[in-house]
Amino acid sequence: MAAEIVNPRSESESESVRDVVGDGDGVADDVTDEPFDPAFALHRGGKMAIQATVPVRDKDDLSLAYTPGVAKVCTAIAENPELVHDYTWKSQVVAVVTDGTAVLGLGDIGPEASLPVMEGKAILFKQFGGVDAVPLALATTDTDEIIDTVVRLAPSFGGVNLEDISAPRCFEIERRLQERLDIPVFHDDQHGTAVVTLAALRNAAKLTGRTLGELRAVISGAGAAGVAIAKFLLAAGIGDVSVADRKGIVSPDRDDLTDVKRELAEITNHGGLSGSLEAALSGADVFIGVSGGTVPEPAIASMAPGAFVFAMANPNPEVHPDIAHQYAAVVATGRSDYPNQINNVLAFPGIFAGALQVRASRITEGMKIAAANALADVVGDELSADYVIPSPFDERVAPAVTSAVAAAARAEGVARR
């Protein structure tokens, strides 16, 4: 069986959508008290379904797909567990797991309200990476319960994509799951964002004749994405990076740091900066915003000549692109209506496709760096200030990332075929 992107709605059912969410006459109806909204129409009945990949047309098909034929396959897998990858969907399906505590820009909305986002993630896996995915919204926010639940579900899946789990719990959940499971575990809010950010930054540096090692970056936001981006940029060889939260630069002299931020303070900010985000931006080469806050124009103006501004908060970037363009050589956002969209869909489908292709036991830093490099290389000779990262709809993206990740998995010894 496989998760398929389907739209099974009939014309009559589409009409019933109007009855529920509004009939287009501008008059509010019963359920939502809002006029007709196409978003509700698209989501009615969910955005995905399960579809069989083999026929069951007669008793012979039935006897092969189910009893008694299925018993032969079950027995073979019991004798040689590795056969599960060949004779079930395990090797091509990912669990998309959330507790609904950090959804998009909506925050802690709970598991049921998070489900439309998880369905959306699943269809992006299929559409952009050819990877089947199953959304699982868990009715617990307890770290141990989430870990134990995923471990118990893991035999059915080839990988686990953690989604929209609030920091700092997301760090521990991912780490402990990686320790307990022998399949890839990937928190996309952290690593997907970091991979796409590095790809865009590599190309921005190339465009302006610099290397990563020559750049000093300042990150606004010390949550899941900010922490992961900082660590990833350091692993990739950036000159220096500082991270700021609501109280200013994360530095060892602060006495209010969580364990995660204390670790971050030890490995970042080699220049010994302290104080506010605005102060850190003076002379900086790169601004990366993953906080949802606002950065005043004078702080952007104080950055080094030829700076890069990646204001990625949605729907409102930390600094408006029109303002950023007055001072920066390259501007990127998280929005699709401006050039250079930092969109995780550029990374996670290909990363999982590559990992599943070689039955990787985990996703390593090397695999993520390979994904970022492959993504940057897709731009090629088309590189310009308005094109440092490809479009999610560029058909070259997923194959390039998949191939690079699979090769890196083999090189790092985590591939099993």
UniProtKB/TrEMBL annotation:
Residues 1-33 are annotated as: Disordered. Pfam families: malic (PF00390), Malic_M (PF03949). Residues 10-21 have a biased composition (Basic and acidic residues). Keywords: Oxidoreductase. Coiled coil: none annotated. Residues 45-178 form the Malic enzyme N-terminal domain. Residues 190-410 form the Malic enzyme NAD-binding domain. Transmembrane segments: none annotated. Belongs to the malic enzymes family. This is Malate dehydrogenase.
